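Data deposition worksheet. Section B asks for the primary sequence of the deposited chain exactly as it was used as input, without tags or linkers unless they were present during the calculation. Section C holds the resulting structure in token form. Section D is free text for depositor observations; keep each observation to a single sentence. Incomplete worksheets are returned to the depositor.
Section A, Depositor: J.P.
Section B:
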Amino acid sequence: MSGIAPAAVGAALGLTLGVGLLLLARVVPGWRVPPVEQRIEPYLRRDRGSSLLTPGTEERGRLRVVRTLLGPVADALLGVLERLTGGPEQVEQRLRRAGRRGSVESFRVEQVMAALAGGVAGTILAIAVVAGRGASVLLGLLLIVLGTIGGILLRDHLLTRAVNRRAARMSREFPTVADLLALAVAAGESPVAAMERVARSSSGALPEEFAATVAEIRAGATVSDALIGLGRRTPLESLGRFGEGVAVAIERGTPLADVLRAQAQDAREASRRELMEIAGRREILMLLPVVFFVLPLVIVFAIFPGIAVLDLSL
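Section C:
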């Protein structure tokens, strides 16, 4: 044990020294040529203004703080993140489907923080394994790398789960919201006024998306484009078909109330089919309580009277 601990400490110190020298070599002006973005950045105006439909610029300040503190390490990690979890367009689409109003850069900062947390956890585990168990130093380095990658993938997995939960919530809300829209349109309101009424009188993920759609229409977008955009930024496929169907009905002059009632009925049928599919996939899991809990009790109640009679006869 005493012979292993100094070797592990020496390896950790050597690794730290090597990383420090590498970082110093990267920032030496004579060895490092700044990219075009950094050369022209001082001559560009940073403030472009903002509106209610676009996220604010305070998110970029967080990314700038991380880059200032970590330097080239943050840039390298951000490049790795884009290769592991997709480009900015894909991440932005997933953020919108999860209902988050933040920017892609904010999510990248969260991934960098998760990677650092995973790296710290991997470092602690590596020191415990190398110093306490006498394992190889390469195993410790592997644990650090796996911890860092695990933190990145865990944050991406949490975003995927958020998208799936929001899709399930929208699927439950969609038939009721479609019925409310059909009633409002049948009462004589326009599609925009009906969506605004639903967004104002209801709460949930789907009314929030209708509120955003109404805001886009008020900002100058056409009703058809706003409805098609509603289907694109939501994780529910039936909602995309709903937006396209309503847009086509508005363009061709089809009675909108009938279209909305048909959409609500289709949503209920799709929800019923989904429940049947879930029950079919979990049929074996549903048998486990019957086999391990109900069936033994039935056997006990069936056999116990006979055992009791035998004991009395003996």
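Section D:
Residues 46-59 have pLDDT under 50 and may be disordered.
Residues 104 and 252 are 38 Å apart (CA to CA).
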